[in-house]
Design a protein that fits this description.
This protein has helices at 11-22, 55-61, 72-84, 107-110, 126-142, 159-171, 201-214, 248-256, 275-278, 309-324, and strands spanning 2-6, 29-33, 42-45, 48-51, 65-68, 88-91, 120-122, 144-153, 220-227, 234-242, 261-263, 284-291, 298-305. By secondary structure, it is α/β, with parallel strands linked by helices. The chain has two domains: 2-124 and 312-324, 3-Layer(aba) Sandwich (Rossmann fold); 127-307, Dihydrodipicolinate Reductase, domain 2, CATH 3.30.360. The strands form three sheets. The chain has a six-stranded mixed β-sheet. It is globular, with a radius of gyration of 20 Å.
Length: 331
């Protein structure tokens, strides 16, 4: 492969490079790309130093794949230019996710829909990825009617600015505010911007992206996003109503056999998923699996994952691996 990482100097960009190193991905050519203020600086990858270059330069070099993590505005402006040059873009931002012509991919679930003609591929929102990883096998077997999700999202979801605000507050330092409120010793029910219907953009993403990935717009979904003072790792309390009845033992067995999912559910041992222990891991953890006794055919789950890993960097790298792997991708 020849790979460019766009937004290489940012929080997710650096995580993408780290994941590539861990997964022993060694492209024939590697190009770190960033904004003008970082051009000319050096970045390390797999024991070698690479000079950061700009968009125009890397487009002229025509790598096979460009993994974007530079924000929605940069993706809107530059992804089509990369695609026109024949470069396949894997985009981490929200820019292309709901475009009807752009596939929204979690490789374990729907990589089979990819075509060689897809030159822009969207990476879902971090909270969506961990949710659908757990729900996909359940939906296939029991058919999901309705989802009620409350997410508890770490400050890394807002990038380095969110991390700096939390760290500054814990040190008693006044600094740049990534949020409208203090986050240390606090939480607030807002992720993204508020929409006219009272929901936020992050809540809307969870709804629309889940339906698109499952290609099932009959699923009713409602969500509440909460920002919490955690560095790394999103958590989700999820209630699911199915069309078909289930046995709880079968739920445990099904999730335990799902690739990329780890069941942690031993209440007597106080074992359940926590963001502290998900950091640096690529798996999605699920626990507190129990029947909802207030509603027929309904289930409660607690889902945790590192939002910078499977929720962003790892999923994007997995898409690149799929594209370059021994798969018969149709035209």
């Amino acid at each position: 492969m020849e790979i460019a990482v766009v937004g290489a100097t940012g929080l997710v960009g650096r995580e993408i490079i780290k994941v590539m190193e861990e997964r022993n991905i060694r492209p024939q050519k590697f190009y770190p790309v960033a904004s003008s203020k970082s051009i000319g600086s050096l970045m390390e990858f797999a024991g070698n130093s690479y000079k950061v270059i700009g968009h125009t330069d890397v487009i002229s070099l025509k790598p096979e794949i460009a993994i974007f993590s530079a924000g929605a505005s940069a993706s809107k402006e530059w992804a089509p230019k990369y695609a026109e040059a024949g470069i396949t873009v894997i985009d981490n931002s929200s820019a292309w996710r709901m475009d009807k012509d752009v596939p929204l991919i979690v490789p374990e679930i729907n990589a089979w829909i990819l075509r060689k003609t897809h030159k822009i591929i969207a990476n879902p929102n971090c909270s969506t990825i961990q949710l659908v990883m757990v729900l996909a096998p359940l939906h296939l077997k029991y058919r999901i009617k309705r989802i009620v999700a409350s997410t508890y999202q770490s400050v890394t979801g807002n990038g380095i600015r969110g991390v700096h605000q939390l760290e500054n507050e814990r040190k008693g330092i006044k600094g740049e505010m990534a949020y409208p409120h203090p986050i240390d010793l606090n939480l607030f029910p807002q992720g993204g911007n508020f929409l006219p219907n009272g929901y936020t953009t992050e809540e809307e993403k969870l709804v629309l992206e889940t339906q698109k990935i499952f290609n099932d717009y009959s699923i009713r979904i409602t969500a509440t996003i909460v920002r919490v003072p955690v560095i790394g790792g999103h958590s989700e309390a999820v209630n699911i109503e199915f069309e078909n009845e289930f046995a709880l033992d079968d739920i445990f067995s099904l999730l335990s056999s799902t690739p990329g999912v780890i069941v942690q559910d031993k209440p007597a041992e106080n074992l359940y998923p926590m963001p502290l222990f998900s950091q640096g891991r690529d798996e999605v953890f699920v626990g507190r699996i129990r029947r909802d006794e207030s509603q027929p055919k309904s289930l409660n789950l607690w889902v945790v994952a590192d939002n910078l890993r499977k929720g962003a960097a790892t999923n994007a790298v997995q898409i690149a691996e799929y594209l370059s792997g021994n798969h018969n991708i149709p035209d």
